[in-house]
Amino acid sequence: MLPQWIIERKRDGHPLTDGELSFFITGYVRGDIPDYQAAALAMAIYFQGMTPDETATLTRLMMQSGDTIDTSSIAAPKIDKHSTGGVGDKISIALAPLVASCGIAVPMMSGRGLGITGGTLDKLESIPGFRINLQPAEFISILKACGCSMIGQTGQLVPADRKLYALRDVTATVPSIPLIVSSIMSKKLAEGIDGLVLDVKCGSGAFMQTPATARDLALALIGVGRSMGKRVTALITAMDQPLGRTVGNALEIRESIDILLGRGPGDSTELTLQLAAEMTTLAGFTPNPEAARPLLLRKLETGQALDVFKTMVRLQGGCDGIVDTPALLPSAPLRQPYAAPCSGFVATVDAGSIGRAALLLGAGRTKTTDRIDPAAGLSALVKVGEQVTAGQPLAILHAATPEHISTALPSVQNAFTIVPGPVTPPPLILERL
Ligand code: URA
């Protein structure tokens, strides 16, 4: 078998056999197949797609390309959540401790931000001392101690995705459903989970910009997860405006603590509760998501979820004093309000534009090697439907230099539309699958 024969078959629209996919993935991870042939295959998959069986085989082969985490010594059900990524999406940070406080184990392997979407690891690293590079034994011991742990992808985990994702990023082959599905699910399945809740984002700040494409992605993710014997559900959620009122790493940690204290913004708190309810239901702890709500609210009110967060932060080397003293988090030397140009009702807070503004303020990266400013970003963001008066801040920009602020300002200006008449806030959850 030669790699070019496999590329040719996919280019011409034929499904690949398990043997062909295995030959290609093992050869690529070993270094026998060069990047240019893997890039050609990725582009052929981008144009020709894959059948559900091919996608499931590709996912399994990628998962088996390295180590998997053995969670069998943990008795509790192991349930994780994955979001396809959005602007201001800090949900995992409060969600994992909240669900862990109910007795469920949440082994969470997260990613870094790239482009306009933020990454949970970057947010966590804005907590002084927090370590995301844990060996599997320490990961398991923290999971046993407090019910949740949040780490990055270790060197030996899913090396096929590590190589292929970096290649896709520079060959315009990221937005392909079979490639996204195999990338996400290979990593999630390698965590040793029993179940997974997917938050598939839809809108201007997400990969999938329409409900139809978000639904296709959700169904493909669910199909692969279930074909591997896992319990999987998905929510399709809105990403036309940022989630919550902050975008930027340390700022989002502050908001996550507020959610755990029961005083977070309405939308980010609500999505945390809804996803947590799906997780307790997948774990068999509640008969349905509606029934989970009183339990989850109690965990917030009694401070038990916050205690789990503090313990996890401490066990991962972080400063848990940030909970009582948020000033211990990095803060930017410059804070500049962006004032409403007129009075009226907020019609749009475009997530894509706010994501670009955060990137330009220093909160994100355009290349994987860029350094980020943990303090940069936006806070006090208004929400669609709110009434504002001329001169009132629509957001506060946080940055290290005046140049960062002036570069980001046009994107901030573009984000907001204010209209004279009332605007109905859009729904947060578009569909449950
Ligand atoms: N996130 C991933 O991990 N992989 C993709 O391909 C897209 C988003």
Task: Report on the architecture of this protein.
The protein is built from 16 helices and twelve strands. It has helices at 3-11, 18-30, 35-48, 52-63, 91-100, 120-125, 136-146, 159-169, 177-189, 211-227, 249-260, 266-282, 289-301, 304-315, 351-361, 402-415, and strands at 79-83, 106-109, 148-151, 195-202, 231-238, 334-339, 344-349, 377-379, 387-388, 393-399, 416-419, 429-432. A four-stranded mixed beta sheet has the order 1-4-5-12, sandwiched between helices. It starts with a helix and ends with a strand. The mean pLDDT is 95. Uracil binds next to helix 9.
Total DSSP E strands: 12
Total helical elements: 16
**H/E element string?**
HHHHEHEHHEHHEHEHHHHEEHEEEHEE
Rg computed from alpha carbons, rounded to a whole number of angstroms: 21 Å
Ligands, deduplicated? uracil
Mean pLDDT: 95
Question: pLDDT below 50 for ≥5 consecutive residues: which ranges?
Answer: none
Q: Report the major sheet.
A: 4 strands, mixed
Coarse morphology:
globular
Based on secondary structure, the structural category is alpha/beta
The termini sit apart by: 40 Å
- Percent strand equals 5-15%
Question: How are the strands of the biggest sheet laid out side by side?
Answer: 1-4-5-12
Give the proportion of residues in helices. 40-55%
